[in-house]
Amino acid sequence: MTPPDASDHRWSDLDRPPLSAAALRRALVREGSLWTSLDVVPSVGSTNTDLAARAGELPEGAVLVAEEQTEGRGRLDRRWSAPARSGLFFSVLLKPTGIPVDQWGWLPLLAGVSVATGLSRAAGVDTALKWPNDLLVTVGGEERKAGGILAERAADGVVVGIGINVTLSEKELPVPGAGSLALAGAVSTDRDTLLRAVLRSLAQWYGAWRESGGDPAASRVQEAYAAGCATLGRTVRAELPGGRSVTGEAVAVDGHGRLVLATAEGVQQPVGAGDVVHLRPGASTEETRGTEE
């Protein structure tokens, strides 16, 4: 008998075993849960793109997970790439009917709080949030980006995509300044465990937000985001649409999820969209910025 090709064996990469879709569904897709379906695919261009294409026919709570993304996207259409099974790459469909649309902008920030909470419990890693959608970890005393969040309107809901670098080694990082949970000293890099923790955390925070009518203060989402936001208290440069920029101290995240900057002119400038660069104290040089390709 010819032995099976090792490359076809389910456990051919012992350091990066595949996700167990059946076990994940048993743990997460149950009566009364937010999660109504969970699919794991070997490879996809973008989980956000694929899930958004089916958003009109799927119920709230659909989850699409990919072992590999070939066309993963971050903000401003930047590419997000990583080796197969080296991270968590997934999208969820949320349909917050009854919540004012002007509060839907809190969903990516709520997702950030959920990811940080879930990873703290399951990986033992202190994950900070860089406004509006980056996940930061500390590697060798340096802040590095280990993940990101992208929320997009789709049909009558929102698709929230989350990417987290889990086991990437230093030589596998896509760009300087990137990081991973493994490099940050995670106590666990079991992706099944991490995904369950993040999705359970997201269900809890989203449920509280919905029950409060989308009120970020009553649901404590605003408080939790501010507590975990590494941008607050720092001098930053916000690069705004149209090529403009504004520099100031990040002093608050307001009720609409905007970052409020106190400028040198004494103006409180809310920023609702843009690329934020952390600046070193007393200088205009960059300290931390997004690391998508």
UniProtKB/TrEMBL annotation:
Enzyme nomenclature, EC number: 6.3.4.15
Pfam family, one: BPL_C
The organism's place on the tree of life at top rank: Bacteria
Organism from which the protein derives: Streptomyces albidochromogenes
NCBIfam families per record: birA_ligase (TIGR00121)
UniProt name for this protein: biotin--[biotin carboxyl-carrier protein] ligase
Domain BPL/LPL catalytic: 27-210
Keyword vocabulary terms for this entry: Biotin, Ligase
UniProt GO molecular function: biotin--[biotin carboxyl-carrier protein] ligase activity
